Amino acid sequence: MATDYDAPRKTDDELNEDSIEELKSRRVDKTTSSVDVDETEQAEGFELPGADLSGEELSVRVIPRQADEFTCSRCFLVHHRSQLASDKGGVMVCNECAA
């Protein structure tokens, strides 16, 4: 909060004159001045420039799993055999998931 050091300050007598009701009303006024913002609603209305990808087409060539690769049973990613951490009963786990 910014403080204006050039503004006239209240004396001790003026500070003692503030009533409890006046102080309570100031506190209530501060709490009611806050605005409730729905972040989800605000984010839905915000659109990045160039973010419209509806006209784009994705083409990816899929290569089948090779003989020296395995599929991790935890993360379901295909890894090279050098990344195999454990193979218990056909359940293969990669180094990253085993850590």
Describe this structure in words.
With 99 residues, the protein is α+β, with helices and mostly antiparallel strands. It contains 4 helices and 4 strands. The longest helix is centred in the first third of the chain and has 13 residues, at 20-32. The radius of gyration is 32 Å and the shape is elongated. The model has no long low-confidence stretch (mean pLDDT 81).
Cα-to-Cα separation, first versus last residue? 48 Å
Number of strands: 4
Unreliable stretches (pLDDT < 50, length at least 5) are none
Question: What's the overall geometry?
Answer: elongated
Main pleated sheet: 2 strands, antiparallel
Content of β-strand:
15-25%
* Helix-strand makeup class: alpha+beta
Integer-rounded radius of gyration: 32 Å
What letter string, H or E per element, gives the SSE order? HHHEEEEH
Task: Quickly count the helices.
Answer: 4
Mean pLDDT: 81
Q: What order do the strands of the largest sheet run in, or round the barrel if closed?
A: 1-2
Can you give the helix content as a percent range? Answer: 25-40%
